[in-house]
Structure formats: structure tokens, C-alpha cells
Amino acid sequence: AAEDNNPSLPWGFNLGIGGTFGTSEYRGINQLGMALPILGYEGDRLYLRGLSGGVHLLKDEYNEINVQISYLPQKFYASWSDSSAMKKLDDRYSSAMAGINYRLRTDYGVLSATLSTDILGVSNGVMADASYSYPIRFSSVSVIPTIGAQWTDVNHNNYYYGISRSESQTSGLSRYAPEGS
Predict the structure, then answer these.
(1) Is the pLDDT of residue 141 over 70?
(2) For the residues 94-123, what does the mean pLDDT come to?
(3) Torsion sign, CA atoms 124, 159, 180, 98
(4) CA distances from residue 70 to 63, 138, 140, 155 in whole angstroms, order as listed
(5) Are 114 and 129 in contact (CB under 8 A)?
(6) For the chain, what is the largest distance between any 2 Cα atoms, rounded to a whole number of angstroms?
(7) I want to staple 150 with a disulfide (CB 3.0 to 4.6 A). Which of 87, 89, 129, 170 is the partner?
(8) Is residue 70 within 8 Å of 97, Cβ to Cβ?
(9) 37 and 15 in contact (C-beta within 8 Å)?
């Protein structure tokens, strides 16, 4: 299994750091990225991987089917924007997603696919993603480059990126109701 060579803390826990790099999707927000400590745990029935954790419904040498809950850190605080129009929009908040996840571990890397929905009712959105990663191991450190694609439905996109009629009137920005993407 891909995780077998990871250095572990006591009781099967792993510790690492993860990060993102990019620009904000919101005008006037200057964000280059963030770093997060990542705590991991791999058990026979339960797991914790960074911002996600769950229960293994099926787990063998190569395959996993999991029910998981994830923290969705996406947010927009209008007061953080440099744009006077954007400052007049409503805040958008982080949420939690629950769903089903499939992982295939091979000698050539890890394929993963997840379908999840907002369980806190923040956006009532649905999200699907698929990714491929290839762990590169050094003596006591692993680097895991990953590439993937994500689809989000109209509810998710409208909550995080839409501009309602009342927001449009207040801010002067055009009304916007995105589709799924």
C-alpha cells in the first residue's frame, strides 16, 4: 500500500504540512496561498487525511471505498476586499461536505474520486472531484504531487460566486447567477 512507508507518530498517526498556491477568485483579495499542518491517521476502519476523515466500507491492498466528511475552507469575507463594490457583498462561509470516496492504490500512484454534498446547508451544493497523485519518498519525508479536476453544481457556484439582485443593487455590480462548472 502507498501509505506503508510513511513515517508514523505513535498509534498510527502521521504529521505533515500541506499548502496551496494561487490567486483568490474574488476581486480585491490578495491571497497567494496558505500552509496547513496535516494530521493523518490510517486505521482498519477509520482514517483522517488532512481536512477529510471517514470510515472504510471496503479496504484491501489496492482499493478503498469510504464514507467521508471534509472541511471545505472556501470563504469570502467582504471586508477583506480592496474593492469598494466587493465590500458591499454578503460574506460567504466555509462548510462541511459528506460523501463517498473511492481510491485505487498501485505502484504507479493513487487515483481518487469523491462525490460529496454540503451537510451544513451553507450552499446546499454538490461537488465531484477526481485526482491522481504519485508519492515520492525520501528517507523520512514524502512529497505527494497531485493533479485533478473538480466539478461543482449550480447551488455551490451560486452561493460562492453569484451576485443576488439585492447585492447587485447595493454594490453596483451586475447580477450574476452561474451554472455548474
Answers:
(1) yes
(2) 97
(3) negative
(4) 20, 28, 27, 18
(5) yes
(6) 58
(7) 129
(8) yes
(9) yes
CB 76 within 8 A of CB 88: no
Sheet holding 13-21, edge to edge: 13-21, 33-42, 46-49, 52-59, 63-72, 95-106, 109-118, 126-133, 146-152
Mean pLDDT of 73-91: 91
Residue 92 scores a pLDDT above 80: yes
Residues 6+ apart with CB under 8 A from 118: 72, 95, 96, 97, 124, 125, 126, 155, 156
Q: What mean pLDDT is predicted for residues 148-153?
A: 98
pTM: 0.81
Distance CA(73)–CA(92), nearest Å, equals 11
Q: pLDDT tens-digit profile of 11-53?
A: 677 777 777 766 677 777 776 567 777 788 988 899 998 889 9
Q: What count of residues does the chain have?
A: 181
Residue 63 confidence (pLDDT) above 80: yes
How many Å apart are CA 163 and CA 28, to the nearest integer?
A: 16
Question: Mapping DSSP to helix (H, G, I), strand (E, B) and coil, where does residue 11 land?
Answer: helix
